[in-house]
Each structure stands twice: as structure tokens, then as C-alpha cells.
Write a structure and sequence with these properties.
single chain; alpha+beta; two-stranded antiparallel sheet; 4 helices; 5 strands; about 25% helix
């Protein structure tokens, strides 16, 4: 099933994933967002065993439905090749790791093709994602 994207400023402006990528911003300056969040058809434990490139493919194929497997794998391969200083590309704190105040648990940067530096941060409690805001101090 093809995932459709709509403008955040005009829900009548709808495009496919490839059209959203090519166009960038919607008319009027809105962002293109998916009309729904697709379900992953793979268990999170299986994703955790994959390398970064395979994980990216299994997630992105649900959002970029009008790209072929070959196109997606090629883009992922070019974006996440040997230019990173670790094989993990985006190392994360693993279950059971002990962290203390002052420990580096993430890095901010702009890997691949992005609009600028950013950090992906999430918190899981008892296997479910929860808002990280309660864990951060101003």
C-alpha cells in the first residue's frame, strides 16, 4: 500500500514519498508528513540484531513506499558507508549499561543527507517508548 504525504499547512496538498523528497517543502512552506504511521512487520528484537543499514531499510521501506528495494538500499549504502568512525554509525546506550552524570550517551551531528545537526533520543520503560521530557532538566 502506497503511503501518502500531506502538507502541514494544507491537508489538501498530497504527494507520494518520492514527490515529497523531490519537492522538499510543500506550497506555502509546509512540511510533508505521512497521513498515517505505518506498522513495522518485524519484531524490535529482530531489528536490534541487524546492522544499521538493514535496520534503516526495514524501517524506511514502510515510509518510502514508491521507492524500489534497489533504490532504497543504494541510498542507504551511499549515506551510511565507511565514512563514520564506528561501525555502529549511531551507537546507543544498550540495555543494562550503567550511565552517570557527565557520561557521553550520544553525539549530535548530521549524518547522511539532513537539514542540519540533530539528535535522536528516546526512552523506553518496560519495553514501551515514553516521553523523554521527564528525564531532562532545563
Amino acid at each position: 500500500m502506497e503511503l501518502i504525504y500531506e502538507s502541514t499547512r494544507n491537508s489538501e496538498e498530497k504527494v507520494t514519498a518520492s514527490q515529497a523528497v523531490l519537492k522538499g517543502l510543500a506550497d506555502g512552506g509546509g512540511l510533508f508528513v505521512p497521513t498515517h504511521i505505518p506498522s513495522l512487520d518485524i519484531d524490535f528484537d529482530e531489528l536490534a540484531k541487524m546492522d544499521y543499514q538493514d535496520t534503516a531499510f526495514f524501517v524506511m521501506r514502510k515510509f518510502l513506499t514508491d521507492f524500489t528495494e534497489e533504490e532504497l538500499r543504494s541510498c542507504i549504502s551511499e549515506a551510511y558507508d565507511g565514512k563514520f568512525d564506528t561501525k555502529e554509525i549511531a551507537p546507543v546506550v544498550k540495555k543494562g549499561d550503567v550511565v552517570a552524570k557527565g557520561d557521553t550517551i550520544a553525539a549530535v551531528g548530521s549524518p547522511g543527507r539532513s537539514t542540519g545537526n540533530h539528535l535522536h533520543f528516546s526512552v523506553r520503560l518496560n519495553g514501551s517508548y515514553v516521553s523523554p521530557w521527564g528525564y531532562l532538566k532545563n
